[in-house]
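ARCHIVE CARD
Drawer: 12
Card no.: 0347
Subject: one protein chain, sequence and derived structure
Cross-reference: see card 0346
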Amino acid sequence: MKFGFWNLKIAKISFLIKTLNFFASILVYRKMEVLEQIWGNGTALNVIQMSIRALVAFPIAWILIRISGRRSFGFRAPLDNVIVILLGAMLARGVVGASPFVSVTVACLAIVLLHRIVAYILARNEKFSKFINGKKIVLYKDGQFIRTNMRRALVCEEDILQGVREMALLNDMEKVDIVYFERNGQISVIKKDLS
């Protein structure tokens, strides 16, 4: 008789747990339906769903760029341009629903962490830095344009003159000592010491 009493109690508790699980699954299912209506699913997103995804993507992008470091927008070396292009392209896939949003965010984090590791190595290893980013190219020295270097850098004389006007605010090459084509693609100018 004792066992029958406990079996009945266990059966009641089991029934209660199953009932609660049933109603909880309905609530979770309803919440998931509501979330899916707000967030969207797949590529058939409406304007509001895409806007909500964009509002979520913005702080994620900001956090990822902060993790990546100021370098990604400061130097504009090839490595830094790659991260900007990749983050934009990958996050766009999450916003428009072409890829699952969480997967896109995790992939972006992996790219940012890889950028951070490579930037760390670049800052400490000159040979690796030259291999990844290249080295500066002398375009003008001793009053002469260096044509072989100009061809290598894919710039013409007018590109160099424009760079001199923009960077040194000069229109006269007689006042210029050296012009470099930097690793980030910009032209830098060293003026002659006229004192």
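Annotation on reverse: Residues 145 and 157 are 8 Å apart (CA to CA). The chain has a mean pLDDT of 80.
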